[in-house]
Amino acid sequence: MKKFAVFGNPIVQSLSPTIHQMFAKQCGEQISYEKILAPEDGFTPAANTFLSQPGAVGCNVTMPFKQDAFALASVDDQAALDAKAVNTLMKRSDGTIAGFNTDGVGLVNDLLNHGVQLQGKRVLLIGAGGAARGVIAPLIASGIASLHLTNRTKAKAETVASETGGGKVKVVGIEDCDKVAPHIIINSTAASLSETLPFDMNATLFKECETAYDMVYRAEPTYFMQQALSLGALQVLDGLGMLVEQAAASFTIWTGYKPKTSAVIDVLRSQLK
Ligand code: ATR
């Protein structure tokens, strides 16, 4: 049986085993997929032990180990290089471990699934943490017209812009975001976890906004989504689809099989209620 796992600390909340078991069922594979709680300073030995088992194919990696996984892996994937973070590890036949970051592909695929046109669009990305870094390369590769990055701490946005996106990321101050007139606004900050907004948003920011996307998900629309809708966004989306799509991209890396995601998203959505 092929063996998979997700490493994190904490890990009890992870939906990854549920998602990957649904993918495996679709392709008639019997897999094991376990949650592994690694000590905060003990990711690398734990991952090496898991991956050295017979049958181990790969694993997912979540907070706070994505940087450790980047250090452990051999990485060619641009999104992972930009993020300096890896969420997917795969054992190669020569015993080395390849690392990928599928978060950004997950975001782009979720946007496309919702009929969002990316080609030629102005995108505003809010936040300059690991979540933002990981989505920059796939967003640029999707054919958008421009990518502006804004953050509460502007200096951090400037660092991210200089280290990612091949010079294509433009930093904009929070006070000037409305001048970008973005078609797509993506909130990658942790603000929604505390039911706050990343900054004081106004209707001018949303005058051309077709889609506002919050990477957080919960049973009800987040405060960011509610505000975006009332300020003029035509469509608001949460990050549940991104979660499933990033898992699907990992599953494809491991197995070559492209899972269908919409039924999986529906099951998880119904379980959030
Ligand atoms: P992650 O790796 O999940 O992206 P992170 O590296 O801690 O987490 O980054 C969190 C991001 O959310 C940062 O851009 C942070 O802004 P600062 O750089 O100014 O700290 C942003 N953030 C978190 N809480 C926020 C809040 N209440 N309002 C605005 N931005 C917030």
Secondary structure topology:
Blueprint lengths: L1 E7 L7 H11 L4 E7 L5 H9 L4 E6 L4 H7 L1 E2 L2 H6 L4 E4 L5 E4 L2 H11 L8 E5 L3 H12 L4 E5 L3 H10 L5 E3 L5 H4 L3 E4 L23 E4 L8 H8 L4 E3 L2 H16 L6 H11 L1
Parallel strand pairs: 1-2, 1-3, 4-6, 7-8, 7-10, 8-9, 10-11, 11-12
Antiparallel strand pairs: 3-5, 5-6
Helix pairs in contact: 1-10, 5-6, 5-10
2'-monophosphoadenosine-5'-diphosphate binds next to α6.
Keywords: Amino-acid biosynthesis, Aromatic amino acid biosynthesis, NADP, Oxidoreductase
Enzyme class: oxidoreductase
Pathway: Metabolic intermediate biosynthesis; chorismate biosynthesis; chorismate from D-erythrose 4-phosphate and phosphoenolpyruvate: step 4/7
C-alpha geometry: globular
Question: How far apart are the first and last residues' alpha carbons, in Å?
Answer: 33 Å
**Number of extended strands:** 12
CATH homologous superfamily annotation of the largest domain: NAD(P)-binding Rossmann-like Domain
The small molecules bound here are:
2'-monophosphoadenosine-5'-diphosphate
Function: Involved in the biosynthesis of the chorismate, which leads to the biosynthesis of aromatic amino acids. Catalyzes the reversible NADPH linked reduction of 3-dehydroshikimate (DHSA) to yield shikimate (SA).
Binding site for NADP(+): 127-131, 151-156, 215, 239
EC number: 1.1.1.25
Keywords: Amino-acid biosynthesis, Aromatic amino acid biosynthesis, NADP, Oxidoreductase
